[in-house]
């Protein structure tokens, strides 16, 4: 590649010399020849010179670096901040000795949009990493929300009929149970799915999916991965011990099964629903508000 010598006359330098020379000539013409009234004519002369002067602004604009900041819709920003803050406060409450088995209101997520915004929780070592994606194709990491929650374990109220039924019996019907009522997982993804007709009918809405167990052959049949619009939780999660943060997937018909809890008993107004318990401040199964 041929490099420019320091004294070599470039087109840009030549343009600067031409403008300087023309400027001096115009000023001499205005003050020495035109005399009185010359300043009034100066504006027209300068405008005329613009036609012949090199346009250096294009060169300067080309040197500007494009912005790399990726933003989310304002309603998404507010909702995800609320979710992040609520998780932090729930984990912190465990350090000061708050009671176990509590429900937290993190704020209902808006429609996240097809290939627009998604949220992932990945179990890594003793903590969990939260990642938020957005941008034109929904695949750009939003650095503001990349967070490591120490000692957090993601979980779902789903994964098996036993887990969901125990949760329903204990916290909605208020009866004692034996056995687990939440399912720890290594991964949770919250995103939006459009209406699908194949391989089964799915209605559009926010969706939650997780890896439950090691059998990937039935991945989509295992709860809570089957239904599409399955996060009608009214912005509520559950924590059994201020360490596990459990999202509550919802189903459409069964009170409780491997796919989650019937949505009317979570964010709806059916008798004993979690939403009504939070509004009244009266909880079943020894639960409290986080």
Average of the residue pLDDT scores: 80
- Beta content: 15-25%
**Low-pLDDT windows of residues:** 1-11, 30-34, 36-69
State the share of residues found in helices, binned by percent.
Answer: 25-40%
What order do the helices and strands come in, and which of them pair?
Elements: H1 11-34, H2 38-50, H3 57-63, H4 74-95, E1 102-105, E2 118-124, E3 127-134, E4 140-141, E5 147-149, E6 153-156, H5 161-171, E7 183-184, E8 187-193, E9 205-210, E10 236-239, E11 244-247, E12 250-251, E13 256-257, E14 260-262, H6 274-280, E15 288-289
Parallel strand pairs: 1-15, 6-11, 12-14
Antiparallel strand pairs: 1-10, 2-3, 2-8, 3-4, 3-5, 6-7, 8-9, 10-11, 13-14
Helix pairs in contact: 1-2
Structure in words:
The protein is an alpha+beta fold. The protein has 2 domains: 53 residues; 216 residues, no CATH class. 29% of the residues lie in helices and 21% in strands. It contains 6 helices and 15 strands.
How is this structure best summarized?
The protein is an alpha+beta fold and 290 residues long. Helix content is 29%, strand content 21%.
